[in-house]
TrEMBL record:
Pfam families, A to Z: NAD_binding_4 (PF07993)
Keyword set, alphabetical order: Lipid biosynthesis, Lipid metabolism, NADP, Oxidoreductase
Organism: Cardiocondyla obscurior
Entry keyword annotation includes NADP: yes
UniProt-recorded name of the protein: Fatty acyl-CoA reductase
Oxidoreductase keyword on record: yes
Length: 126
């Protein structure tokens, strides 16, 4: 879902100047490597053709939704306070996950995002 949302927003709203994207490390890849791997998908072909520099608009925010305060560094947290739109669509629905993991991501992380949103002075929509 997130892959589609990122592509659609950047392609249909070319005036977006910056997009912060929460990415975690996974399978031995750091968040920046995962983003580069993501944009190699054929889904991004039209966007690459129309806006070859679109990657400059994406700012990777290394996060861990299971961690306290979303695993954000103070620098990244401060950067997010300038954002004005939040899309939160992360959820775990696989039944093979531990209940604690599912609760942390599905409930606690959502609460932490809402608390962060309260501090955003220019927030338009969440």
């Amino acid at each position: 879902m997130g892959k589609l949302l990122i592509e659609k927003l950047l392609r249909c709203c070319p005036n977006i100047t910056m997009m912060y994207v929460f990415v975690r490390g996974k399978d031995g890849k750091n968040p920046h490597e995962r983003l580069k791997q993501l944009v190699e998908l054929s889904l991004y072909d039209k966007l690459k053709k129309d806006q070859p520099d679109f990657l400059k608009k994406i700012v990777v925010i290394e996060s861990d939704l299971e961690a306290t305060n979303l695993g954000l560094s103070q620098r990244d947290r401060d950067r997010l306070l300038d954002a004005n739109v939040i899309f939160h669509g992360t959820t775990i629905i696989r039944s093979n996950q531990r209940l604690r993991t599912m609760a942390n991501v599905n409930v606690r992380a959502t609460k932490q995002i809402l608390l962060l949103a309260r501090e955003m002075s220019d927030l338009k929509v969440i």
